Amino acid sequence: MTSLERQKIIYxxxxxxxxxxxxxxxxxxxxxxxxxxxxxxxxxxxxxxYGVIEKxxxxxxxxxxxxxxxxx
Length: 72
Description:
about 70 residues
């Protein structure tokens, strides 16, 4: 699987989490259930997916500390 295909899977899963309010673990399980994914693909998708969520949480925290109100 190409890197672009893996990133598309990650993007779709993250969109469902952030836009539709889906639970991250459930959405990741759905993304990893796609046929044809190797263990390497699954590891990459999992690390990338949780990395984005972790960085987003940290950035939200720091923005909240530095700003009186949340920017648009």
